[in-house]
Structure formats: C-alpha cells, structure tokens
Amino acid sequence: MADATSEPLLAPTIDSDGAPFWEYAAQGELRIQACTACGELRFPPRPCCPHCQSFDSEWRRMSGRGRLWSYVRPHPPLLPAYAANAPYNAIIVELADAPRIRLVGNLVAAPDAPLDSVDPERLRIGAKVQVVFTDVDGITMPRWLLERP
Predict the structure, then answer these.
(1) Would the pLDDT of 121 be above 60?
(2) In this structure, what is the dihedral angle of CA atoms 15, 17, 23, 28, given to the nearest 10 degrees?
(3) Among residues 58, 80, 140, 149, which one has the fewest Cβ atoms lying within 10 Å of its Cβ?
C-alpha cells in the first residue's frame, strides 16, 4: 500500500461539458453554465438544459460569494491520501448569485492551506464564504474562505 505522501488526492474528471468550468477556474473566475434560451443556470454542466431542452449555453461569471449550506468532517478510515489530513471538512456551498446551485469543496484558512486548517468550531450552517483558487496537482481547484475570518 502506498503511503499518504506518495498518493495524490482524487482529481476531478474533466469532460467536454465541464472543461470550461476548469478553464475559468485556472483564470481565477467562478463561472456557471447558463442556458441562452431560457436563462436558467445549471450545475453540473451538461449539454442540454433540463428546463427547456435547449442545447445553447454560455458561462456566466459569479461573484464567488455564498453560504455554507451543509458540511461533514470525514474521519479515518479514508483513502490514504486523505487520511493524513483527517479529520477535515467537506462542505456544500450555496451560491449567493444562484441559490439553487450548490458546489462541494473545502473551507480553508488560506488558498494553499491544508484541508484541516479551519477549526471545526468555526463551521456554521449559513456562514458566509468567498471562493479562492489554488493549484492541486496541476488542476486549479475552488476552495472557500470564511468572509469573516
């Protein structure tokens, strides 16, 4: 079995529908797919609008603000790459610009901070958060900071 330092964290699967999300993230922008026919935002990205069935879409820039909608603190046993960070937080963020859109990520003390960098006592449903971006094994990942540190 590989040790935790040699095994990378799981990487997202980047398909043709979601590639623009990751390209914008690499530029430090949080963008969400929107239907150009009916205007509805959708996430995860997909070719067809679930509201009007149009195949026309664009990527709208979001403010990057949201609120902590839910969270969990995984404890071992975990995949080896995550065990060294446990327990850490995994959060769901409801976007301020699009309350029906929720993204999964981690609440961290700084963009490059470890996954366990926020005191668990600071995790509160409804807490306001702001997106930040950091490179993780060659992919720019969105992470979240508390608006009031």
Answers:
(1) yes
(2) -120
(3) 149
How far, in Å, CA of 95 to CA of 17, rounded?
20
Q: Which long-range contacts (CB under 8 A, 24 or more apart) does 17-20 make?
A: 17/44, 17/45, 17/46, 17/47, 18/44, 18/45, 20/45, 20/59
Cα dist from 140 to 22, 53, 127, 130, whole Å: 7, 31, 24, 16
CA distance 135 to 120: 24
pTM metric for this prediction: 0.90
- How many CB atoms are located within 10 Å of the residue 46 CB? 14
| Residue 132 and residue 143 in contact, taking contact as beta carbons nearer than 8 Å | yes
Q: How many CA atoms lie within 13 A of 148 on its CB side?
A: 8
Structure tokens at 16: 């043709």
